[in-house]
Design a protein that fits this description.
Strand content: 5-15%
Strand order of the largest sheet: 1-2-3
Largest sheet: 3 strands, mixed
Number of helices: 4
Length: about 120
């Protein structure tokens, strides 16, 4: 469900926001000359050999909303990695009973805390 939401959001963002792609090497070499001074609000994709980067211009008014969006996307990407790892290790086949038993075992192994007065 979360994966479909991310894919849908990516499609919407691509349709709504025009994005210019710049090779990372050009950006490193030319810096601000590689940026289009006429479109300061346009997101940029810096393409590298092994990784791409997204530059999002922020105004003081949009800063909080953009940071919230990035934080949410980071959480979804982390969830994707966890789901992938669960499939690779077979944990995606665990039942709720298996999970509950593991929680109970972990709780039994905890030492009781000393209560302060």
């Amino acid at each position: 469900m979360a994966l479909a939401a991310v894919d849908k959001m990516t499609t919407i963002i691509r349709k709504v926001l025009p994005m210019k792609t710049i090779p990372l090497r050009d950006f490193q070499r030319e810096g601000s000359k590689a940026l289009d001074p006429l479109a300061p609000t346009e997101p940029l994709i810096l393409t590298g050999r092994d990784q791409d980067f997204l530059l999002l211009p922020m105004t003081p008014d949009s800063r909080t909303a953009l940071l919230d969006m990035v934080e949410g996307l980071s959480a979804i990407l982390a969830l994707r990695e966890d789901q992938k790892l669960a499939v690779e290790t077979g944990l995606d086949q665990s039942s709720m009973q298996d999970v509950e038993e593991e929680i109970q075992e972990a709780r039994k192994s905890l030492k009781p805390r000393k209560r302060s007065a």
